[in-house]
């Protein structure tokens, strides 16, 4: 028997005269999960039932998609996907852009970037893409200088100038908010900041520039791009209703791409 999760799903079945299609979409905690739950409400009357699956890290959602355990994911930006495809051989492709969530510098010890001490312990994500992103943010903030030609994935080995002698602590991205007490500051992705009760607009002491290349994407297995459910999923995500929800809920800390 087909599981009905909402009244809208049931009405869609009656109106369409056919069984609704059901998919599983992987997300990370925080705004990606909250937004996809809203997408599910919008997609249900269109005959698409979305089961939102949360993953606690950035690695498993692509593996789960490649393995066929889920049909799509929505948690990553293009540079991260490119790195995963290169390193792990995944045959995954983007089908739509979603939101941009500027990375922020947070601290429980200082209130201004000017207060960052000599030899500061600064946490950054330990995956190559988001770690590189954090270093680029620090460069834009004038705290370090990176070697030319490192692109979007520099490592701490590419730091050529470090006037304050910052000591980088590479940690799992999800652990960074909980590690603030042990650090002078940390570069934290917005989804993990929000999930930990941090407000990017009021709690971050500095943020990534608005013209960052890190817009997030919906990803599917190569070959599924033309599936009817993909079109419905993207239409639901890019709907005026969802844009209004994001604008009202996040008040500018999450920016829509459409």
Summarize the structure in words:
The chain has helices at 7-16, 31-43, 60-67, 78-88, 128-140, 190-195, 228-237, 240-250, and strands at 21-27, 48-54, 72-77, 92-97, 99-100, 104-106, 121-125, 145-146, 159-161, 167-171, 185-188, 206-207, 216-221, 255-256. With 258 residues, the protein is an alpha/beta fold. The strands form four sheets. It has a five-stranded mixed sheet with strand order 2-1-3-13-4, with helices on both faces. It has a five-stranded mixed sheet with strand order 10-7-11-6-12. Strand 1, helix 2 and strand 2 form a beta-alpha-beta unit. InterPro entries: Lipoprotein_NlpA. Keywords: Lipoprotein, Membrane, Palmitate, Signal. This is ABC D-methionine uptake transporter, substrate-binding protein.
Note the main attributes of this structure.
D-Maltodextrin-Binding Protein, domain 2; five-stranded mixed sheet; 2 domains; 32% helix; alpha/beta; 258 residues
CATH topology of the largest domain: D-Maltodextrin-Binding Protein, domain 2
- The CATH superfamily of the largest domain bears the name Periplasmic binding protein-like II
**Tally of domains:** 2
Strand order of the largest sheet: 2-1-3-13-4
Distance between the termini: 37 Å
Low-confidence stretches: 1-18
The arrangement of helices and strands along the chain is HEHEHEHEEEEHEEEEHEEHHE
In total, how many beta strands? 14
Largest sheet data: 5 strands, mixed
What's the overall average pLDDT, rounded? 92
* Shape by Cα distribution: globular
What percent of the residues sit in helical stretches (DSSP H or I)?
Answer: 25-40%
- Output the CATH class name of the largest domain: Alpha Beta
Q: Which structural class matches the secondary elements?
A: alpha/beta
Query: How many helix segments?
Result: 8
What portion of residues belong to β-strands? 15-25%
